[in-house]
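> forwarded from #structure-qc
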């Protein structure tokens, strides 16, 4: 018999039971699926609803921030503003810093008067000072509004703003007469500290005041101040946190009326003091040891072996130059560290601070003021020199710093008290040069009369063009140019009025947007070849963009 038949005979109901069991399992699965379906459907609907609710809320938030909640209004910078003071005199000082932290540069200046402006109306007597006294004021670069005013000293010897970490924050340092030191907060104008000092009789402060590493371990950098009295120079170190003197004054044997330049080398700092015929070098380590009587290992307090070989340690004379009659020393940035430009009565010499060898020498006589830096070629540093070539006559030269080659020069009439030049970096990695004087075409010079005081703009994109921006008849005490907003709003500032040695009168501070003068300027062709129309030149220089250099 067949195995299947035998199985059927032995278990006759097995096949039917299996089928019934299978049908029962299928029925249970169907019931489970039927029961789960509504649950899944409800869950899916909840997910969809949650998605649309989230989307709706996001749209409401975007709508609120875009249209309902107003954005904070940014003040519009005025093209020109004035700040006027009556019965005052102005100090030859201007600083440009962001005082109110609105990303627009502001102007800090100093004047001497009996009272401040009407908006603050601070008096000298409120600070315990005789009237009139020296005021320090900060005005908004946006509209000329007074941010703060502060009677700072009976008279002012020197003023320096933007000093890092002075009293724990940015500050202005006022060196007053009688001898006093006052730290004023850059943001608020409040006095952080004030200390009387004994600098001696008939003293002169050698400027600028230098910030040095923290020598009293209070967490704030300190100050070193050089005071010239007769043929001696005294060294004072003061705490940047409290203004108190640290140690005792040191004395330097420097002959004659000296000036100084500080050079920061790779791991050391040196102070070069120069007179008409001598050059002296002191390391920061030597100056610190002389004032405090202590040896400290701090950054910048090391000594450079190459420099030490060239210093006579008995007299501290520096055998860097063979020529005498030094008029100016200037720091010139190099590839690895600063170099030094030595300007004498007949020549200018660039010296490498690494090898102490001459890099180049240029014949230039009677330089009138400290050199200025700018860019004639893209990203190639140049030096602006102004030299006297006759009565009321000067020559402006732009010299490439790496080679000493003259890139551009111009002869003009000039007053002795005319302001120095200024530079502004442009987006093409060059500079716009602002020059004071009076240009006259060759053959028409009239140096016998008092020259007019005109402001010119020169840009290397037009080497044969000057733009005459303005003609000022007022006495200009200080002049500066700066980018008041990052990569835009290039301006210049004029401080006009009587000097402290003159009778009081009206003092005026003015900010002027450079492009406003460019659009109304007079085009002067330095050669007979006119490559473009005058309006095209104005339009192109008007569209010129400016940028901030690091």
């Amino acid at each position: 018999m067949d195995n299947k038949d035998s199985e059927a005979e032995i278990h006759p109901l097995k096949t039917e039971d299996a089928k019934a069991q299978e049908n029962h399992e299928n029925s249970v699965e169907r019931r489970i699926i039927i029961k789960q379906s509504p649950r899944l459907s409800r869950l899916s609907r909840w997910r969809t609803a949650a998605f649309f609710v989230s989307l709706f809320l996001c749209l409401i938030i975007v709508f609120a921030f875009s249209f309902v909640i107003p954005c904070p209004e940014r003040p519009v910078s005025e093209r020109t503003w004035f700040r006027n003071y009556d019965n005052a005199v102005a100090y030859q000082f201007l600083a440009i810093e962001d005082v109110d932290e609105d990303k627009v540069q502001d102007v800090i200046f100093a004047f001497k008067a009996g009272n401040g402006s009407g908006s603050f109306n601070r008096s000298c007597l409120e600070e315990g000072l005789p009237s009139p006294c020296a005021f320090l004021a900060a005005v908004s670069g946006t509209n000329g509004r007074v941010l703060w005013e502060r009677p700072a000293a009976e008279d002012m010897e020197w003023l320096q703003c933007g000093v890092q970490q002075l009293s724990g924050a940015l500050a202005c340092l006022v060196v007053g007469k009688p001898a006093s030191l006052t730290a004023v907060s850059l943001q608020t104008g409040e006095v952080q500290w004030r200390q009387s000092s004994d600098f001696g009789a008939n003293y002169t402060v050698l400027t600028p005041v230098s910030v040095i590493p923290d020598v009293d371990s209070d967490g704030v950098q300190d100050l070193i101040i050089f005071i010239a009295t007769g043929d001696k120079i005294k060294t004072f170190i003061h705490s940047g946190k409290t203004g108190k003197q640290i140690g005792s004054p040191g004395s330097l044997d420097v002959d004659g009326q000296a000036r100084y330049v500080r050079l920061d080398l790779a791991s050391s700092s040196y102070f070069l003091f120069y007179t008409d015929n001598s050059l002296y070098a002191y390391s920061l380590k030597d100056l610190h040891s002389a004032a405090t009587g202590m040896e400290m290992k701090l950054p910048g307090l090391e000594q450079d072996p190459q420099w030490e070989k060239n210093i006579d340690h008995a007299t501290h004379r520096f055998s860097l130059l063979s020529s005498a009659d030094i008029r100016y020393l200037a720091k010139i940035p190099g590839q690895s560290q600063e170099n030094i430009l030595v300007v004498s009565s007949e020549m200018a010499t660039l010296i490498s601070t690494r090898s102490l060898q001459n890099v180049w020498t240029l014949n230039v006589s009677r330089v009138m003021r400290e050199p200025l830096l700018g860019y004639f070629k893209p990203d190639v540093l140049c030096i602006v020199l102004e030299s006297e070539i006759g009565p009321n006559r000067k020559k402006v030269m732009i010299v490439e710093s790496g080679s000493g080659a003259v890139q551009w020069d111009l002869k003009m009439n000039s007053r002795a008290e005319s302001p120095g030049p200024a530079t502004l970096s442009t987006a093409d990695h060059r500079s716009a040069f602002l020059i004071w004087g009076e240009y006259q075409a060759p053959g028409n010079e009239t140096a016998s009369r008092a020259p007019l005081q005109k402001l010119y703009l020169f840009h290397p994109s037009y080497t044969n063009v000057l733009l005459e921006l303005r003609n000022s008849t007022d006495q200009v005490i200080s002049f500066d140019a700066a980018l008041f907003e990052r990569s835009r709003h290039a301006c210049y500032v004029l401080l006009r009025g009587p000097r402290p040695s003159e009778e009081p009168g009206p003092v005026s501070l003015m900010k002027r947007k450079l492009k406003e003068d460019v659009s109304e300027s007079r085009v002067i062709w330095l050669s007979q070849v006119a490559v473009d129309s005058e309006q095209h030149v104005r339009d192109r220089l008007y569209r010129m963009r400016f940028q901030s250099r690091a």
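QC bot note: The first helix runs from residue 3 to 10. Residues 1-20 have pLDDT under 50 and may be disordered.
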